[in-house]
Amino acid sequence: LADLNDVILDLKRSSMFITCAFLASQADDTLQFALAGHLPILHYRHGQAVIDELWLSHLPLGMFEQQRYRTATVHFQAGDLFALVTDGFTEVFDTRDTEFGLERLKDVIAANGEKPLRDVFAAVIARARQHGRQTDDQSLLLIRCL
Fold this sequence. Notes:
This protein is of the alpha+beta class. It has 4 helices and 7 strands, in the order αββββββαααβ. A 4-stranded antiparallel β-sheet has the order 4-3-6-7. A hairpin with a 4-residue loop joins β1 and β2 (30-36). It starts with a helix and ends with a strand.
């Protein structure tokens, strides 16, 4: 991420920045992850219907020179699900100006976590659209551990 930060600094306008979340497979039952100004990675634990938030507090990419980013690891089991999601989902507002938010998103994923990925995706999209109008980009990456 530090190298990516340096590249982005040279390519962007002064008022721009980029948030980022990543997962990298390790040789065992762990994944390495990092965040740069991004929402937490959501970890659905198979068979438990519980969502853990994977957090690492770092500034977004492209804001300052010589930023350093650390990583952490998370253990997984077969059937676990990881969701990387942009704030275009959490920042959907209803007619009463109530934000969809991270907790509602986690509830949808927990209720659908055992289903095929396309069904989890469809449930998140449907629930966010039911809550309110989309006003920002909405990106969702779902990863099921085998």
